[in-house]
Every structure is written in C-alpha cells, then in structure tokens.
Amino acid sequence: MAIMNDYLIFVPDDVDLRHSPLRASLRAETYVLGAFNPGLTRLPNGNLLLMVRIAEALREPVVRDHVHAIRWADGGYVLDAHPLTAVNMSDPRQFDVGGSNYRMLALTSLSWLLPVELDADGRRVVEVHYDRAIAPAAPYQAYGVEDARITQIGDRWYMTTCSVSPERHSTTLHTSDNGLDWTLEGVVLDHQNKDMIFFEGKVGGKFMALTRPLGELYFAYPEGSDYVGGPSINLAQSPDALHWKPIDHPFLRARRGSTSAMKVGGGSQPILTDAGWLMLYHGVETRAKVGIYRTFWALLDRDEPWKILRLEDATPLLEAKPALTAPIAHQLYLPTEVVFTTGIADGGDSYIVASGEADLACRITHIPKSRFA
To answer: Which of 12, 76, 145, 301 is the most core-located residue (most Cβ within 10 A)?
Structure first.
C-alpha cells in the first residue's frame, strides 16, 4: 500500500499582521482567523509557491449593540455596523443579515492572499513575500479575495480567485510571467460560480477549466437515478482565458448514496498524465452545519475530458487529520472534519498536494504516484 506523508506547513501564528494590507487604514485590532486553502505552483527557480488565503478578523466584532464587518472601499478599509437584533451569528465565519427578501450575508473576516515560498520538496518555508500580497483592489472585491487556484500553462501562470462583494460573488483572474508578480485581469465568471480551476495545458488548442455554479434552486433527478441534485462540477472552454463557453456535456455530479451526496467541487488543477487528466476534487457529506469535506480523485480522457475514465469516490484519497491541528486546537473555530485540497505539483515519485486543513492551516501531503495506478 502506498504510504502518504503529510504535515502542516503554514499556520495562523506564522502570519505577521504588521505587514497586513489592512494596517494601512484599519485602526481596529485584528487576528488571523485562518491561513488556509493555498493555491500551489512551481516557480521558475524550482521552489514551490503557496498562495495562502489569510482570513483576517476583528478581535472584538461586537461593540455595544452592533456587530461589525470589514469592507474595502476607495483604497482603504472601513467597518460596517449591523444591529445585533437583525443578525444571526450562529456561524463563526459569517452572519445572516435580516430584513431582505433574499438571504444576505456579511463576513466575520476579510480575506487576502499571501505568497509563501517553500523549498522544492515543500517541506520548509523559504520566504514569505508580504510585499507581493494580493488584497482587494476593485469594488467587486469589497469583502475580500479568497481561495486561489494556480495553473501554469506554457511560460505563463493563471490564478483564479473568488472575489466577494455586495455587487456579486464572482470568479476573478490574475496572470503572471513568473508566478510571483500578478496582474488582475478582472471578472471572468459572474455571480456565484466557485472553484474555477484551469487545466494545466490546453485541450484542442483552447483553455479548459473546471467550474462549479451555485444557486438557490436545483431540479430533481428522476427516481432511480445515480445522481442527486445540487452543486456539481462543470467544464468550460475559452480561446483566451477571459471569455468562457460552458461545455454542454454534464460532468462530475454528486452520486446518490455516496459520502459526497451533499455536493462536490473542484480541488487541484487537472494535470496531464500518461493515462489522462488527473484531477483531485472535494466531496461533502451532510453532517451538522458545515459537513465533512474529503478529497477524491478522477481520471479524464485526454482529448474529451468530459469523459470520466475512472472515478474514485468510495474511498477518500485524503481525510481531515485532527492530530495535525492538535497543537493549535485552541484556534479551531470549525469542526475538524474538513480537508479542502487546492493544488498539486509533481514531486518525482510522488505528487505534492496542498490543502486547507479545518479552514485553519495549510497542509502538505506527499502521495506516491503508485496510489493512482
């Protein structure tokens, strides 16, 4: 049996908030709620790069009879006050704001992205690039920039992120010529399309990406179907990485009776192997408020990736490991049954896989390639 090796490589206490982009204008005291869900790529110098999501939260969000949320506006950061009588604060990550015909959320933290350079094997932090941090820079990022996924195609790097604001919950794109210095290209997918990840290579001369549209309404599959309705992974193609056409074929859907029946979503960037495109994805089992997040894998046809050659959704590739977060258990704010894979890199005889552990810290796992035979 292939033996995996994993560990936490970056945790909240590793973040020096003196270098936070919020310090320029926000006077309130903050702390790192989580340093997690890192995009992963290899840099030109051979080292690995984690693009870590830093969720920075107010130390005391409640003052008298209001709860406050951080918002970027006109180049600085402000606090919005919401009456306690009109909110539901049962979830430590967000609170529901009442008084609307639709469900409205505000966040207990604002996220920005921190480049963390590792050695070539992903076992040691080489440098934390605070000077290259990515923070909100446009109105559609007013509530933060989240969950980077990085793909190198040729000599160019492409990074998708979720940008959050009252305007929209969109997918945005950054590009780079070196994996460290990024240019914001703007919105590429509109409202609530999460987990967009570029394939690491083109298909038929076009960019290919995983997407995961979200909504308040889903239609039921017929009785006896292998699938259940809800969030699923779709595919899209683009001639230029900016303009996207969804693929008509259905793709990876939650299967009835599986531990992923709640929902599925993209994980790592699909990479091309001799057997086809290898992709790691997350499946969620219904449990309490958050659910149990596990990592599974699939193998896709090289030329028609909507054709799934192999689907491993019975035995998880990765599960949460409470032993990893035991030394920082006092910082946990969610159940520990969450592992959220966000990147993969070739490590020779093994793959180096990056994940968020418990929405708190960055986990690295070395998985022998024989595991996918």
So the answer is: 145
